[in-house]
Amino acid sequence: MTNDQRKRIIVCTLVALGAGCVGAIAGGQISIWVHQHNCQQYAWGGKEICQAWVTPGAIWQGSTTGFWVGEVIGALLSGLATPRGARKESRGAEGLRG
């Protein structure tokens, strides 16, 4: 493994983890909003109890989903954005000629 390949792996890994963290934050916030929106049907006291009840599960569900989605997308995009090293030229038909 060359030094350029190691650098590419490190960059892709860090970008994927960073995108995963951003996705976890965004996913958690979206999931909280959706779950708490369902609590609007209750009266004043029930609404607060419902929101306190659904928030931990919403954070967990949204952040884990957001992390994995962000990580996969970040790895894909960083893999496409980072240049590959020079490939070794293989001897095809030209190498067999002589």
Report on this structure:
The protein is mostly helical and 98 residues long. The longest helix is centred in the middle third of the chain and has 38 residues, at 44-81. It has a domain at 38-79. It is built from three helices and no strands. The protein has helices spanning 3-37, 44-81, 93-97.
Helix coverage percent: over 70%
Task: Please indicate the percent range of residues in DSSP E strands (runs of 2 or more).
Answer: under 5%
Low-pLDDT runs: none
Number of DSSP helices? 3
H-E string: HHH
User: What is the rounded Rg?
Assistant: 23 Å
Briefly note the structural class of the backbone: mainly alpha
Q: Could you give the count of β-strands?
A: 0
Set down the secondary structure blueprint:
Blueprint lengths: L2 H35 L6 H38 L11 H5 L1
Helix pairs in contact: 1-2
